[in-house]
Amino acid sequence: MIKDNQTHLNRAHVVVDGLLVAGSYMLSYYIKFESFIGDRNPAGHLAMETYFSALYFLVPGFLFLYYLVNLYTSRRALKLWDEFVDIVQANIVGVIGFYVILFMLKQNDFSRTMIAIFAIINVIVTTIAHGLLRKFLRYIRKKGYNIKHILLVGYSRAAEGYISRILENPQWGYDVAGILDDFVPVDTSYHGVKVVGKIDQLGDYLANGGYDEITITLPLNDYDRLEELVAQCEKSGVHTKFIPDYSSLFPSNPYTEDVQGLPVINIRYVPLTNSFNRMSKRLVDIVGSLLAIILFSPVMLAAAIAVKATSKGPIIYKQERIGLNGEPFMMYKFRTMKVQSEAEEKKGWTTKNDPRVTKVGALLRKTSIDEMPQFFNIFFGKMSLVGPRPERPQFVEKFKEQIPRYMVKHQVRPGLTGWAQINGYRGDTSIRKRIDYDIYYIENWSMTFDMKIILGTIRYGFVNKNAY
């Protein structure tokens, strides 16, 4: 629920900023050309339509710049002044970029003064809007909404420092539900936050749910347990942070947050938890899948006829897979095997010369045509063009116990193709290697990385020796 609320807030944030950019631009035009202090001679400047046509590029351009300065990343502990600096930086870059484009287009009649007025107005109104948003969030958090419930693991100076800062800043919307520790007695309290159990009970607390974050605040003499605890938290899928008890050991880097001088290290950085990134990727998925459905419709029609004509059974094969946030969904493929019982289906992966595969099915698998119905899964939001391949429920249950970090792959939508697949890890290949490639993709996602994988799929992925 909290993730959904944050997503809705970020989307509204983007829409409001877009309106503010457009409004600031229109107001700057009025001040420059229509007001009593402006140049009201129509012969002395370009037509209004020419100026306003720039909004088609200006609004998305400025929203992209705001995204680049992390204006849409959830940073509850960020001060308004720091946000103001980010807004100023984005506007300076935007104005310089605007000037450069006008110079390259040799558009000398376009008022540079109006652009400067726009930048000043835009910085002011955007900062005011973000300040009002902070007040609104502070209000709803006082009412008990948009709160993140945190469980601390380890009683230390870092834990006390974190609790103190949270209590001093209720506008952040954090609630420390309790602390787990092996050396401090249960019911020991620090500013009202109690030790509620032992660290060995972490699994029980994770299973019961109710926590949005697990923050590891172990003392220096207990860091040998860190790897085990991180693995346990990640297996549950709960977002995990680590606050070092000796903060000078950890310089600031892109994987940390600064909470008034206290570095908070995110155990795993997932770019697609950012709402703007998710929306951008989703837009590409919708457009890309729709174009693919149209482009490959003759191929899919031919495959459907071939499947129906050569073996008994349905044309489309549906199978339950595990997707985003561990939610099950039905994945579609062209049927490439003889019709089987449920027990036979659970036999395992297809192997080389598998007798269950039909002759037409073998060709469809070899060329990846059998996967094309998944364009509909992508269009309806269950999958993405690029991402970790989804797995069947029984294998998810097996692998999450055997392979560290396996459940991390479910923090993003599963994909039709992925970094592991274009590197040869598909079909009957090492699942551990596949997960390593999947996690690398998740932590290093970008639009250019997705494009690289799509191009790699076109070049290497359609015909694959490991696809049986």
Automatic annotation (TrEMBL):
Transmembrane segments: 12-31, 51-72, 84-105, 111-133, 283-307
Keyword Electron transport attributed: no
Gene Ontology cellular-component terms listed: membrane
GO MF terms held by the record: phosphotransferase activity, for other substituted phosphate groups
Intracellular or extracellular location(s): Membrane
Pfam families xref list: Bac_transf (PF02397), CoA_binding_3 (PF13727)
Assigned keywords, A-Z: Membrane, Transferase, Transmembrane, Transmembrane helix
Membrane topology: Multi-pass membrane protein
SUPFAM superfamilies in the record: NAD(P)-binding Rossmann-fold domains
Family: Belongs to the bacterial sugar transferase family.
Protein name in UniProt: Exopolysaccharide biosynthesis polyprenyl glycosylphosphotransferase
Organism lineage: Bacteria, Bacillati, Bacillota, Clostridia, Lachnospirales
